[in-house]
Amino acid sequence: MEYTSRVPRPPLDGLIDDLYHPEGTPPYARLTLPPTPAALLIVNLGAPFRIRAGTDIETAEYADGCVVTTPTRAYDFSYPARTRPVGVHVKPWGLAPFLPMPAAELRDRPVTLEQVWGRPAVAELRDRLATADGPAEMLTLLEQELTRRLRATAGLGLVRHTSTVITATCGAVAIGGLSTAAGVSSTHLVRRFKEIVGVTPTRCVEVRRRFLREHPGHVLDS
């Protein structure tokens, strides 16, 4: 399988770790993704893939793509025999400027890209990506689409700064201290985190600690 990725230009680099495009036969048919302090957006151009999220018994099929906010439970991701998505690895707070709803509404509930951006817009984007002249142009087109959709989001700076502190301390930080340092109430900080990340600061710390404990040596930039 061929894999292409790159870091986007400002201002997207403050929201996104990288844009990527794998194409071909995946090295595994199914992947279990653990709870992790990150989010995901995928535009699918090939055969549908399937996701079983959280405690769901059945898997759901995603033909056009999917959006996954910061997961607190593991989920199973099943690839088709040949895969062709264009995706985005997103920082925990990075999806909010592209969502029409609070991230908390999508907690542990992957949704199709159509549910987020609407069928006509997604169909038009998929057509442009499918006819692009190679992986580099595909990533450029997706970056342009994300830049076009970028909107101001109340509380984004607060959540980004607080998340950076959580990262710097590897999660060893008191939430009360974070709100005091930011000059806001704990209630306000929790509300903003749920709107933008999908989980509370406390849950975000728990997810980060668990991920680092179960994946020693892994570096998390977000």
Q: How many angstroms does the end-to-end distance come to?
A: 27 Å
Residue windows where pLDDT falls under 50 for at least 5 positions = none
Radius of gyration: 17 Å
CATH classification class of the largest domain: Mainly Beta
Mind explaining what this structure looks like?
The protein has 222 residues and is α+β, with helices and mostly antiparallel strands. It has two domains: 2-149, Jelly Rolls (Sandwich), CATH 2.60.120.10; 156-214, no CATH class. Helices cover 35% and strands 21% of the residues. The protein is built from seven helices and ten strands. Strands 1-2-9-4-7-10 form a six-stranded antiparallel sheet. Strands 3-8-5-6 form a four-stranded antiparallel sheet, with no helix packed on it. A hairpin with a 6-residue loop joins strand 5 and strand 6 (60-62). The longest helix has 15 residues, at 135-149. The chain is globular. The mean pLDDT is 90.
Fold topology:
Blueprint: E1 2-6, E2 16-23, E3 30-33, E4 39-44, E5 49-53, E6 60-62, E7 65-68, E8 75-78, E9 85-90, E10 111-112, H1 113-117, H2 119-130, H3 135-149, H4 156-168, H5 175-182, H6 186-196, H7 201-214
Antiparallel strand pairs: 1-2, 2-9, 3-8, 4-7, 4-9, 5-6, 5-8, 7-10
Helix pairs in contact: 2-3
What is this structure, in a nutshell?
With 222 residues, the chain is an alpha+beta fold. It contains 7 helices and 10 strands.
